[in-house]
Amino acid sequence: MTRRIVVESYPYPRVEDLQVELVERKGLGHPDTICDAAAEAVSRELSKHYLDRFGKILHHNVDKVLLVGGQAAPRLGGGEVLQPIYILVSGRVTTEVRTGGGVESVPVGPIILRAVKNYIRENFRFLDPEEHVIVDYRVGRGSVDLVGIFEAEDKVPLANDTSIGSGYAPLSTLERLVLETERTLNSRETKERLPAVGEDVKVMGVRDGKSITLTVAMAVVSSQVGSVSDYLAVKEEAESLILDLASRIAPDYDVRVNINTGDIPEKKILYLTVTGTSAEHGDDGATGRGNRVNGLITPMRPMSMEAAAGKNPVNHVGKIYNVVANEMAALIHREVKGVEEVYVKLVSQIGKPIDRPLIVDVKVRMEGGRDVTADAKREIEAIANSVLDGITGYTEKLVRGDITVY
Questions:
Q1: Residue 394 structural domain
Q2: Taking the model in full, what pTM does it have?
């Protein structure tokens, strides 16, 4: 069966040629990102258990995680958590497996609790998963029709949904700057240099022509700053780090950095947290409300609204197709000469093999605005076919955590 791959010229300007560009990233400690990360951690642990016990990943979708913010009382030099954060994991999970020896129950509860708490333990320095967080779960069995599709013995899994995956390449200068700003503030090197910088970092980037404004919401850990001047010194050093990064990523732009714009230092109104996340004090979160698969929120680009995190990595096209679309776009941009910008969309049909999308839509902007040539089209089709031929390999990468979706 020949795949329907449509390659055509992209008739619109490059994102970098627009007067205004907007990009956002919700960082590691943002409540929405915590929910995405928790969902992914649970999916990976379930997948590993299913593989170890039964030789294959069984049906599950835990893409409905809710975080209810707690309460805390930060103060300069200290503070305490008054009410813990509540995280609820819900979805559909295979809880029992019929084997030759009878029915074996899957220890779903312990797997979920361990996955979420380990994620928090490994990624937060001041958020204690035992004292500051309550992890709960409400899961049910998958519906019969979806489980039947999932367990079909085809070589290539069958799509469990009719869905759209969307991706593009390359990242613009602003997109790279926003992404790397959050990663820099949450890097090990920064935490060693500035331990007061919390994990909850949100970056909003606005480019107006050749001017870029980064508005950064950066939680500061209250126990690590003893005075207002200490707090302001942390902000100043963080700003210096970001400007140094900008000088390398965006040397041709005038970059301004504004950190914690709601502060009123003379009234001691500061963005202080006990644990490094706003989730400690009323900020709620939910899976799918934050970053897309490439780690960014990009209203200037085509985006899927799928909550990819927590969906099973075998046949849930709402997850796999978004990952594959981004990978395919990156390969096309890197390997096809003259491609300046590329957008990829994949459409699945429920019950059809995941390597056979209903359509692969590739829109390409060539250098100089030229039309895409016949040779370039053949190269792009070959890359698309190659990626789809190897689509089942993405399951292992997702289970290992080699690919993140937030």
A1: 5-17+162-171+289-400
A2: 0.94
